[in-house]
Design brief:
Number of strands: 25
Radius of gyration: 25 Å
Strand content: over 45%
Number of domains: 1
Shape: globular
Largest sheet: 18 strands, antiparallel, barrel
Oligomer: single chain
CATH architecture: Beta Barrel
CATH class: Mainly Beta
Length: 504
């Protein structure tokens, strides 16, 4: 019912926008924004396959402005207003009258978990379809949806019924929005992806996105991220960019159900206690629970620097606990979301064969679960902490067809409570090596590890573009570390997988 209502509202908005937008004059049809000038929604180059490093890790630098061409005719040098206006108007009319651009993909992923009890853990099928077009010279639209069906829950009975019901079949609205351009302003209204930062395999400055973490962070980012229902206003002036975001009804991380392969971690209960999970509690739909933020960026001498402030009901939940002694000693958990404030900065600089990237985010009021059960009278088992997280990365591509990425990162907890699991300084690093063998075969390996303990994840993968629009891949996901480690908690989830994808 909610999907039908959302689609009905979006369709009414499309019709209303087409009636309200006046016919464009010649001046109106000239590019007046970054999106119009550089065609952000229509990349000039064919996008990389999702299995490639650009699509998987999303590490492309902002597109450089096209050089200004010198006048090549008397009309272009001295005016030629009538001819130019006619050409621009004709181009605008052609774009509006053109049929919508339709694209998508069909993908199958088969994963087998080998630690005992070994089992099939994923037989996922994705069908993604989107279309985009124009209502006028300054109004664009996009509609998108994805259907997921995981046959492992139909063909096996390894997982609990609640997990089967949650992960067998899903219909997901993807990006569904209107784009409206007006002089130096761009407005986007609807369900959309808002990405403020992205590092290789890590999320630091990407504070707005919600994520589907039912398969941890293993899927491609295009599948992992959940769009937000948002109103976004962007202002462009030379090399300056300002962006304001308001999210009236937020999306939250999808953590799945207890008993799933990668269900969110909670501290183990004391001996003699059992664990019980209540249904997740989401914030009510009220004005006080809306999310909002501001991001400012500038490109100066090749340095792309941005700063942002964002206040939100945390997309990632915190598990609150209650101790019940009768009739059976039980630790009762419930996932909840509370407001946090985040302030951060990102930068990128291209030095030729080396690209520098960095992100830093300060989070005020982040909730941490207490691991100490000594005080059974504790009311909720949660403590709030202020956290600074930062990451610095170098991308090296001097070797032909080879990319090497190295990152160092840290999470610092101010005035750390001694009863939480993370240490005051959690330090780590990552290494990515990617190499292309001709035009069809690509191999890569991603390693992410902690300096604090032997806690790591290794993801080698080989992909083969055997036909146009077709890609096959095989890979391994290996986790290792202590039970309380970020990766070690999934030590029994090592798996081998295959993928087959057709894009259109």
């Amino acid at each position: 019912m909610q999907i039908r209502t959302s689609m009905h509202i979006l369709c009414r908005a499309l019709v209303l926008a087409s009636l309200l937008v006046p016919a464009a004059s010649a001046a109106d049809t000239l590019p007046k924004s970054r999106a119009a000038l550089f065609a952000d929604d229509e990349p000039a180059a064919t996008p990389a396959e999702a299995g490639g490093r650009e699509a998987l890790f999303g590490d492309d630098l902002p597109a450089r402005p096209a050089p200004v061409e010198a006048p090549v005719s008397r009309e272009s040098l001295f005016g030629g207003d009538d001819l130019q206006s006619s050409a621009v108007a004709a181009a605008g009319t052609l774009a509006i009258s053109s049929p919508p651009a339709v694209k998508g993909f069909v993908q199958n992923r088969m994963a087998y978990t080998w630690p005992k009890p070994s089992h099939w853990s994923e037989m996922m099928n994705h069908f993604d379809l989107s279309a985009q077009g124009r209502l006028s010279s300054n109004v664009k639209w996009k509609l998108g949806a994805r259907v997921d069906y995981d046959a492992v829950y139909s063909l096996t009975d390894f997982y609990p019924q609640s997990v089967e019901n949650d992960q067998r079949f899903n219909f997901l609205l993807r990006e569904n929005y209107l784009d409206i351009s007006a002089d130096s302003w761009d407005f986007r209204l609807g369900r959309q992806q808002i990405v403020w930062g992205e590092m290789v395999g890590l999320f630091f400055g990407d504070v707005v996105s919600a994520k589907d973490v039912r398969h941890f962070v293993l899927p491609e980012f295009e599948i992992l991220r959940i769009p937000q229902w948002a109103a976004r206003a962007e202002y462009f002036k030379d090399d300056f960019h300002a962006e304001f975001v308001w999210i009236p009804v937020a999306s939250y991380d999808n953590i799945g159900k207890p008993g799933a392969q990668f269900f969110a971690y909670t501290p183990p209960p004391p001996p003699g206690f059992q664990t019980f999970f209540l249904n997740e509690r989401f914030p009510s739909s009220s004005l006080s629970n809306t999310n909002y933020g501001l991001r400012l960026s500038i490109l100066r001498d090749g340095w792309d620097v941005a700063a942002f402030a964002y206040s939100s009901m945390s997309a990632a939940p915190t598990f609150y606990r209650q101790i019940v002694m009768n009739p059976q000693p039980t630790v009762v958990y419930q996932a909840r979301h509370k407001r946090i404030d985040q302030f951060g900065s990102t930068l990128a600089k291209d030095f030729g064969s080396v690209v520098l990237k960095a992100e830093a985010v300060y989070t005020r009021g982040r909730g941490f679960e207490l691991s100490n059960f000594a005080n059974l009278s504790d009311t909720d088992g949660v403590v709030e902490q202020n956290v600074l997280a930062w990451v610095v990365g170098l991308d090296y591509n001097e070797i032909a067809d080879t990319r090497i990425n190295v990152q160092l990162f840290q999470q610092h907890i101010f005035d750390r409570n001694p009863d939480i699991i993370p240490e005051s300084n959690e330090n780590g690093y990552s290494l990515l090596v990617n190499h292309k063998f001709g035009d069809k075969v690509e191999a890569q390996a991603l390693w992410i590890s902690s300096f604090n303990r032997s806690d790591w994840m290794l993801r080698p993968r080989i992909s083969w573009n055997f036909e146009k629009n077709w890609r096959a891949a095989i890979g391994v996901d290996i986790f290792n570390g202590p039970p309380l480690g970020f990766f070690g908690r999934y030590d029994d989830s090592d798996r081998v997988y295959t993928e087959l994808r057709y894009s259109f």
